[in-house]
# Entry
Amino acid sequence: MSKVSGVSDLSAELAAKRGIAKTEATDIMKDVVEIMASAIVAGGVSFKGVMTISPKVRKGREGTIAFGDNKGQKWKSEDKLVLSITTGSQMDAELNK
# Structure
């Protein structure tokens, strides 16, 4: 598995592919990330054949502490919003070559 690319890596690739300055490509990438983040928070974003990213609720849990000074004490975590990422058919095929 290769390394995870960040905004600067992707900006460099975009600049090379489009023949634009790296600073312009970085500004574009930052705008795209900001717009995607807003869309995900508002309900999700889908790239046909590639992936769908949407928020979902992870239910809180509860239990009893099994060790330490607080052994036997009950605990409970709150519900939390997390991201759900589902691969599309094209991405699934690419990942599983």
